[in-house]
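cron nightly-structures :: item 1 of 1
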Amino acid sequence: MSNTQSRAPRPVADEHVALKARRVSFSWDKTPLHWIPDDPFTTHTINVLHLLLPAGERWFVHVYKQILPYIRDDRLREDVIGFIGQEAMHSQAHDEVLPHLKDQGLDPTPYTAQVDWFFEKLLGDRTLPPGRAREWWLMERVALIAAIEHYTAFLGDWVLNADELDRKGADPTMLDLLRWHGAEEVEHRSVAFELFEHVDGGYRRRVRTWALAFSALMFLWQRGARYFMENDPTVLDGKASWKEFYQGGKRGVLPSTGAMLKSIPRYLSRSYHPSQEGSTAQAVAYLASSPAATAAEARTSNGAV
């Protein structure tokens, strides 16, 4: 345990909400391959989420089930259990997009196999003796999840406010998937960081795992975008570049490079708390109007599975 607990950053406001998994369902029959019209690069850059998130969020759930015995705060325990339920549903929802892509001639399997290896083997459980070594590896992964969740919340806040996607005529079903997921990321944005602070909270560990998380996300994301562009059967000599990503940010159809860079010192600040990012009220409002989330709520109210 770290001795930094007394200096733990506090939220800017108490925006606590009870977390629940919304059992959403999406139909992809009418969603075109390029769901942002005439913009395969932006489409595929965002599509990388469908490649990364199923394995990544299964890994989150696996690690958090291991950390539950270390939690001594009842409310945090309930938050972590709610987080586990939401992340499991996110994994399933994005996983269900992959057969749709394959049906349209873009097989994601070679890339998702690499992502599975990254989370299941490189970041998976290790054969370590009980005691300090095993606990160290568990705490490293808890800290990694906190760093990754900083960026999933960043992306969630971005997509909730990405009005340019609507103006470009983006497919409404895909937008609802992204915004439902993004809203839940904003809704539970404090859980991973507060869990890390509760079980460890070491600043050096926070910095070290941020560097690994940020580097891995950047590497995997650009690799995924390149894979999609190179294998899209409708694009001749497709390529992905950082220049196009930067330009997409300037147009508002992708997160801006400047906003991403500014998010780094915020996370590394000793006074950082995730409640400083995004708006719980906006997230909850979207979840109350999301077609998929409201349909899920109606099924639950009617007793349907």
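cron nightly-structures :: done
The radius of gyration is 19 Å.
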